Amino acid sequence: MGSPLPSAQRETFKYDDSIVKKFLIATMIWGLVALLLGVFIASQLADWKLNFGISWLTFGRLRPLHTNAAIFAFAGNAIFAGIYHSSQRLLKTRMASDWMSKLHFWGWQLVILLAAITLPLGITQGKEYAELEWPIDLLITGVWVIFAVNFFRTLAIRRERHIYVAIWFYIATIVTVALLHIVNAIVIPVTLFQSYPVYAGVQDALVQWWYGHNAVAFFLTTPLLGLMYYYLPKAIKRPIYSYRLSIIHFWSLVFIYIWAGPHHLLYSALPEWAQVMGVVFSVMLLAPSWGGMINGLLTMRGAWDRVRRDPVLKFFLAAITFYGMSTFEGPLLSIRSINALAHYTDWIIGHVHGGVLGWNGFMIVAMAYYLVPRLWKTKLYSERLANIHFWTATLGIIMYLLSMWTSGITQGLMLRAVEGSRLMYPDFMETVIRLIPLYYVRAIGGSLYLLGYCLFLVNMIKTIRSAPKNIEDDVYTATPMGPFKHDFETENSHRFLEGSANIFIAYTVIAVLVGSVIEIVPTLDAHRYIKIPDSKKPYSPLELQGRDIYVREGCYNCHSQMIRPLKAEVMRYGPFSKPEDSVYDHPFQWGSKRTGPDLANLSGKYPDSWHYYHMKDPRLVTPKSIMPAYPWLYKNKTDMDSLSKKLRVMQQLGVPYTDEQVQNAVELAETQAKGIATTLETQGVPKVSDSKEIIALIAYLQTLKPLELP
Amino acid sequence: MTIISMLLPLALLLATGFILGFIWAVRNGQWDDVDTPPQRILMDDLDSEIHPRG
Predict the structure, then answer these.
(1) Residue at A24 is within a domain
(2) Cβ-based contacts of A529 with chain B (< 8 Å)
(3) pLDDT(A349) > 90
(4) What is the DSSP string of A363-409?
């Protein structure tokens, strides 16, 4: 930047690279854990026996650990590594506080460790990607605040006036994730290990998917885009194709993303207008996303020979291509008619893995291949190995995506197939059996990706091992940032509005977006209150206990409780779900995937004894079922100690329990349990103990019924 | 849908925050020059007096 100023004005400083190294190593380790878990649970869907009959290895408990590990441990640590490395360089200053960086690092690892312990134990809030219980949520908040304070203090002491676009992406991430996390995690604790969210039913669903979608947007997309805008130009040694476009990309993305959440709830009991809003904004997202993709790809134009040779660039190219693919698929899946087919199926699983394995995973390894040799001042151990990694992983993703697309479309088509007035495949198992071969293909695809990842780890370990003994931190110098003076005197004060066309366009876009949202507000009042009919009774104490077991076991990872108003669905399951059905559901359990059938209208479909045998081993009543067996429910005693407290909390949340019910919760539960045990005995089940968890679960399952409205 | 009365203001608050950030950036002259910043990030190593490797 011009000729250096006299050295008297220049300041000398070092960057804190040790924190970057820490986060990088954590990334490598947790990435392995996340992938191992993924392959493991994928294999369980191919062959249910692979949970070995151990409660904490079952699908319902490990899937949350897999998703949390992939998002918050693998991608999370990688994002932090990249942010700490690039921000210091972009802002030309060391992080404001080394100890805050360290606290952030160790705090985050503690969160991950606690997740790895609690989730397999079934300690969960039962909301996807927000499963961690309230003490861990508090810890996350604390760590995030430390990160934010450290980051913004660093921003304040920067020596470079211009804030490069990557930094803007980081800022958006830090602010938005804090907001999302806090709003979605508001709960009332019952014990140290359990809590109920303050929201119920539709409201909980909307908050959850507002959070869930934006976790994808602001945890898995914006920070990685920031990393792309820094590391891609660095790796290819040329500036980003269009810096203007990158600024427009950023601003349009942050304003549109936040409204897209309801696309997870199409055809659900969410009010129509909210669904429409979700769809409109989701489709709009295509434009900025593809703007970003094109910007990334065009940065590589004319350098294809290097892309062909250099593994770092190869991974960048593939990652950006997957970004383009996922951001095309997303809006597509938001279109109602396509969503009707794809929702609840494995297509969605394919979609998210295109994003996480392709876009995030490849971005992360590209960054690591670039950074590790530089930070450890050595050369990459083997480019050949990196190339093999690339091809193995790419083949793995392709197998993964193809199998899941096929599985999703097959399941979607079979479940909706109607001939005259009857379903063509009335037996749900028929569709499950059709998908099992695809689950094997998926497991193989995932294993290939894992194999590639192991090659990456070997490469990294060898590289780090070859580092010189004593690495000295480089010394940098720069001039401090002087005060800013705007030349308003000589220029028109409207200059900042008219000065440059892209700024004016951005203003217009923002105005339109805010305007359209405000327009929607008046339509709200009409939908504001759900009248709760008198016939809607809250769960009895035993049913509530059963529901907690349902949440603990993570049944929502395979079952939905939301019948959509579609012909085939109503024929298969019964009357579609309405907002009233889940008004007392803290948390809602609508689910997002139907590996098993919807359970919203389960009540009375089977006798108690059927459930008794089915939960013990589903194969006893449904041959070839892939649902896990739950033998421990027949050994564990139903927890009665906290029952009164649970009802009290529910009462505080507005569920109409009387004080007598709260006080007599245990007796009420015991009486009901005795009744169910007697029923089971009359249905021919030998030796039933009424104190076991299975009784509570059956009590809950038999309440699942859409409300009959007059 | 009482929850909307909380989510919507929150989202608008967030949007307002971003808008303020945007206005600040424009008035601060952040994008008066959009040609040198993308070039400059490539030179941050060369800019220092001791040239690190890599």
Answers:
(1) no
(2) 2
(3) yes
(4) HHHHHHHHHHHHHTTS--S-HHHHHHHHHHHHHHHHHHHHHHHHHHH
CA geometry: angle at A364 spanning A360 and A365, to 5°?
125
- Please give the residue range of the domain that contains residue B24: 2-50
Number of domains in chain A: 2
**How far from A17 is each of A22, A23, A181, A372, CA to CA, in Å?**
9, 10, 29, 11
Higher confidence at residue A585 or residue A503?
A585
Q: Which of B2, B4, B8, B12 is best to mutate for the A interface (most A CBs within 10 A)?
A: B4
Which of A91, A161, A162, A277 is the best residue to mutate to test the B interface, defined by the most B CB atoms within 10 Å of its own CB? A162
- Which has more confidence, A456 or A185? A456
Q: What is the pTM of this model?
A: 0.92
Question: How many angstroms from the chain centroid is the CA of residue A637?
Answer: 33
Cβ distance A234 to B5 less than 8 Å, yes or no, reads: no
Place of tokens 């939908």: A527
Query: What is the per-residue pLDDT across A2-52, written as a single tens digit (0 to 9) for each?
Result: 445 555 588 899 999 999 999 999 999 999 999 999 999 999 999 999 999
* Chain B positions in Cβ-Cβ contact with residue A230 (cut-off 8 Å): 41
Domain-located, residue A477: yes
B7 touches chain A (CB under 8 A): yes
Q: Is 0.90 exceeded by the ipTM?
A: no
- From chain B, the residues in CB contact with A244 under 8 A are 34
Number of domains in chain B: 1
Residues of A whose CB is below 8 A from B29: 484, 486
The whole domain housing A658 covers 541-701
Confidence of residue A529 (pLDDT cuts 50, 70, 90): low
Task: Write out pLDDT tens, residues B20-51.
Answer: 888 888 888 888 888 888 888 888 664 444 33
